[in-house]
Amino acid sequence: MSAETRPNAAPALPLGRLLPLYAAQALATGATTVSTVLASLIMSNLGRESLSGLPSTLISASAALSAGLFGALMLRSGRRVGLGAAFTLGACGAVLGFLGARAGFTPLFLLGAAMMGGAQGGYQQARYAAAESVPEARRGTALGLLMLMSVLGSFLMTGFSGAVESLGTRLGTSAEVAGWLVGGGLLGIAALLMLLWTPIAPPLPTRARLSIGQAFAVPGVRSTALALATAQGLMVTLMSLTPLRAHHLGMDHGGVAALISGHIAGMFGFGWLTGPLIDRLGLRVGYVGGALLLAAAALTAPLPGAAWLGVSMFLLGLGWNLAFVTGSKALSRYPAAQGITDGLGYVAAGAGTLLGGLVIAQVGFPVLAHVCAVLALLPLVSAWRARKP
């Protein structure tokens, strides 16, 4: 009996229809890799080293503010309109950031950074579009493949770093500044890809939409938001502050880059495994696994030796992946809560990074890591409250 006729066979993913969406997400991740990740270096080169963290702060704040707005736009006008607008906003922001950085005009560069952050608050919701495009039994798999496309986009742009550097030389600027122009081009292509993508799920009719209050009153939605915000906040906090720990251990730039690469591999590289696993074993397994891995990452981070930092960063990425894919699959049932929940995740990330830096300055990195280990258990509440599957 063929796979198509077996009664219990899982339905096939419509990869042909999902391809433009997956490709756009890969390009968006690549754009982030070649632009916003190194924004602090551009601020330093602009003579504003004391404000080197400001672009990242603006990006997180803008993403938090825009996530709910883009979520509402997608409810009203559909995923294609909302995602296309987000990619277009990001492309314009990247170009403005490039022009501001090249001209040495800091306010224009910061405006571009804020627009890039606002775009991220929208196009990160592409995962819900992917989930809505498949039967519920395959939503974890669809989300996992989207994660895999993200890591491919990131590594692809890393491999083209030489070409970006050459472009910067031809333009009379640095590779970091040229990366913003490249990022704008990638996001522009992603916006065009939305013209080729036809969402399977149409916009919800007005009478079928839940308000934000109604959505968060549904059993399980608040606990799902708790898991997503916890995973996002802890991941960004430890990812951002672990390089400081590495520096204190005497690691050089290459060693820190290796830590980040291992972290990215954990975040995105195992989507082919975690997505189907959640589909097969259910939401509770994803939440429990994510919580335990996040706690293990926090507990191994302060152990002596650089090798433990590598283990910690990989576990941090993989734990985030499990919790994030699980929560995203669960929340795909409730579109009204998606944008606000994403905004909460960005708020948690910004607050965690800010407070984490203060904790390290006052009592040291190990205390921060142990606090994060306790907070990492919050998705266990989500596991207890989770609806099947």
From TrEMBL:
<feature type="transmembrane region" description="Helical">
    <location>
        <begin position="281"/>
        <end position="301"/>
    </location>
</feature>
<feature type="transmembrane region" description="Helical">
    <location>
        <begin position="81"/>
        <end position="99"/>
    </location>
</feature>
<feature type="domain" description="Major facilitator superfamily (MFS) profile">
    <location>
        <begin position="9"/>
        <end position="389"/>
    </location>
</feature>
<feature type="transmembrane region" description="Helical">
    <location>
        <begin position="343"/>
        <end position="361"/>
    </location>
</feature>
<dbReference type="InterPro" id="IPR020846">
    <property type="entry name" value="MFS_dom"/>
</dbReference>
<feature type="transmembrane region" description="Helical">
    <location>
        <begin position="54"/>
        <end position="74"/>
    </location>
</feature>
<dbReference type="InterPro" id="IPR011701">
    <property type="entry name" value="MFS"/>
</dbReference>
<feature type="transmembrane region" description="Helical">
    <location>
        <begin position="143"/>
        <end position="160"/>
    </location>
</feature>
<feature type="transmembrane region" description="Helical">
    <location>
        <begin position="254"/>
        <end position="274"/>
    </location>
</feature>
<keyword id="KW-0812">Transmembrane</keyword>
<keyword id="KW-0472">Membrane</keyword>
<feature type="transmembrane region" description="Helical">
    <location>
        <begin position="21"/>
        <end position="42"/>
    </location>
</feature>
<feature type="transmembrane region" description="Helical">
    <location>
        <begin position="367"/>
        <end position="386"/>
    </location>
</feature>
<protein>
    <recommendedName>
        <fullName>Major facilitator superfamily (MFS) profile domain-containing protein</fullName>
    </recommendedName>
</protein>
<feature type="transmembrane region" description="Helical">
    <location>
        <begin position="105"/>
        <end position="123"/>
    </location>
</feature>
<dbReference type="InterPro" id="IPR036259">
    <property type="entry name" value="MFS_trans_sf"/>
</dbReference>
<feature type="transmembrane region" description="Helical">
    <location>
        <begin position="307"/>
        <end position="331"/>
    </location>
</feature>
<feature type="transmembrane region" description="Helical">
    <location>
        <begin position="180"/>
        <end position="200"/>
    </location>
</feature>
<feature type="transmembrane region" description="Helical">
    <location>
        <begin position="221"/>
        <end position="242"/>
    </location>
</feature>
<dbReference type="Pfam" id="PF07690">
    <property type="entry name" value="MFS_1"/>
</dbReference>
<keyword id="KW-1133">Transmembrane helix</keyword>
